[in-house]
Amino acid sequence: MLERMWLIRAFEERASEMYARNQIAGLLHLGIGQEGVAVGLAWALEPRDRSFGGHRAHAHALARGADPTRLLAEIAGRSTGYCGGKGGSMHISAPEVGFVTATGVVAGNIPLALGAAFAATVTGDGSVAVAAFGDGAGQTGSFHESLNIASLWGLPMVFLCENNGYAEFSPLSAHTKVERLARHAETYGMPNVTVDGNDAAAVLQAACDGVARARAGEGPTFIEALTYRLRGHYEGDPGKYRELAELADWKARDPIVRFVAASSLEDLSAAAEARARVIVDGATKAVLAAPMASVDQLLTQVTAA
Question: Using the 8-state DSSP alphabet, how is residue 185 labeled?
Fold first, then answer.
């Protein structure tokens, strides 16, 4: 888990650097500071389980085992990326490791995960579907409709809300009176729990409980992980809507630092970080040497149903 969190941190810091050098175009949403949620969740899953991310999903893809070189290539618009460089940062996909897709539409991944959970009941393959989304998704119709159907039909699904306190630039209090998103699950008779999202071990335990319940045919679970993104909503966001004291407070709760201290891994952390940065250096070199996505490949890898 420590190795994977360091890989995610090094990867996203490099993506930020490449964006600043105009080596990455378009919007880039980083989840630096939220690594504990992605890794804690991924460690509770089996290869057959299916994950669906939102617009800030690099960490979830890497946590499931996505190749950092192919993922960085996708973000940088290179033809060697997972989607040939055509999906970019918000539409990544690594289905061979269980990360089916991400979407730039807020809450758009939740019905997709719902469909995968329903499919599992039809095929009987024993898989569990997981949707990871932010607190802003809680105000969408698809969020509530999916909770209702998942609970009503007893689908093998885990709803994971990464509550980082902001929907884009708006604090939670500006768009809902519901302080804890897990309360919505109570409305639909769904087991739920709110955990410290910057404690990877706590997320892992909650995810293990939810996955076990789903796999046993006991229906869905809602997990609310309280966390914080240490970067802006997107790269270049001046972040004037946040107080400096608030940012400093959350930096002190860095999930990697906390995991190292709680697990007594101080002697291993520096080496784990160094290995992660070597991997990312190699990925960067390969990506910058790869060709950009070409116009003649525009309509490949596209499926219409």
Answer: H
Average per-residue pLDDT for the chain? 94
pLDDT at 9 over 60: yes
* 110 to 132, 142, 148, 161: CA distances (angstroms): 8, 7, 12, 11
The pLDDT of residue 169 is above 80 = no
Letter for the amino acid at 154? G
Q: How confident is the model at residue 174 (pLDDT cuts 50, 70, 90)?
A: low
Report H helices in the chain.
2-20, 35-42, 58-63, 68-75, 109-123, 141-153, 172-175, 182-187, 200-215, 244-251, 255-263, 266-289
Helices and strands (H and E) in the chain: how many: 12, 8
Checking if the pLDDT of 46 tops 80, the result is: yes
Q: In Å, what is the CA distance from 100 to each residue of 116, 129, 138, 234, 279?
A: 10, 10, 22, 23, 23
Which CATH number is 2-286 given? Answer: 3.40.50.970
